[in-house]
């Protein structure tokens, strides 16, 4: 029986679709929505904020607030609550690390834009290939 489900979220419609799928298919499970903010870098807009932040985790949570709010809104549609977490670093690595403590992972196939499809699709593929637990990829 699946008791704990991890759903990586990035704010895209595809990741929210994955969350809806998890809520529908696993209504009794404890669902954790994980948003991973990219590693600090001076070359990217939001990552610059992270690189300059005095408190990295607080800044990451600030950057991820809108994504977390969208996950909470989806959970409200199902009259339930999900646990939300925000991490900083490489998305695939954090997802795989978090998958160690769950029974299944439900991930969106890709994000919306071409860059999202290349980046997030690549993450979904890495998670699918390396996860120690079953992975469902939602389109």
Q: Can you walk through the features of this model?
A:
- With 139 residues, the chain is an alpha/beta fold.
- It has one domain (4-138): HUPs (Rossmann fold, 3-Layer(aba) Sandwich).
- It is built from 5 helices and 5 strands.
- The protein has helices spanning 13-25, 45-52, 56-77, 91-99, 114-130; strands at residues 4-8, 30-37, 83-88, 104-108, 135-138.
- Strands 3-2-1-4-5 form a 5-stranded parallel β-sheet, sandwiched between helices.
- Helix 2 (45-52) packs across helix 3.
- The longest helix is centred in the middle third of the chain and has 22 residues, at 56-77.
- The chain is globular.
- This is Universal stress protein.
- Residues 1-139 form the UspA domain.
- It holds the Pfam family Usp.
- Belongs to the universal stress protein A family.
Mean model confidence by pLDDT:
85
Number of helices: 5
Number of domains: 1
- In the predicted model, the low-confidence regions spanning at least 5 consecutive residues are none
Question: Brief overview, please?
Answer:
The protein is α/β, with parallel strands linked by helices. It contains 5 helices and 5 strands.
Give the tags:
139 residues; alpha/beta
SSE layout:
Blueprint: E1 4-8, H1 13-25, E2 30-37, H2 45-52, H3 56-77, E3 83-88, H4 91-99, E4 104-108, H5 114-130, E5 135-138
Parallel strand pairs: 1-2, 1-4, 2-3, 4-5
Helix pairs in contact: 1-3, 2-3, 4-5
């Amino acid at each position: 029986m699946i008791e704990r489900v991890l759903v990586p979220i990035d704010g895209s419609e595809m990741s929210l679709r994955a969350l809806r799928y998890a809520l529908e298919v696993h209504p009794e499970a404890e669902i954790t929505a994980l948003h991973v903010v990219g590693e600090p870098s001076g070359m990217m807009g939001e990552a610059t904020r992270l690189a300059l932040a005095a408190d990295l985790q607080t800044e990451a949570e600030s950057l991820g607030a809108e994504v977390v709010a969208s996950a909470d809104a989806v959970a409200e549609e199902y009259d339930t609550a999900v646990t939300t977490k925000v991490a900083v670093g490489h998305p695939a690595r954090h997802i795989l690390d978090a998958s160690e403590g769950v029974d299944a992972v439900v991930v969106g196939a890709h994000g919306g834009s071409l860059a999202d499809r290349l980046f997030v699709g690549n993450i979904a593929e890495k998670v699918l290939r390396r996860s120690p637990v079953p992975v469902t990829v939602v389109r």
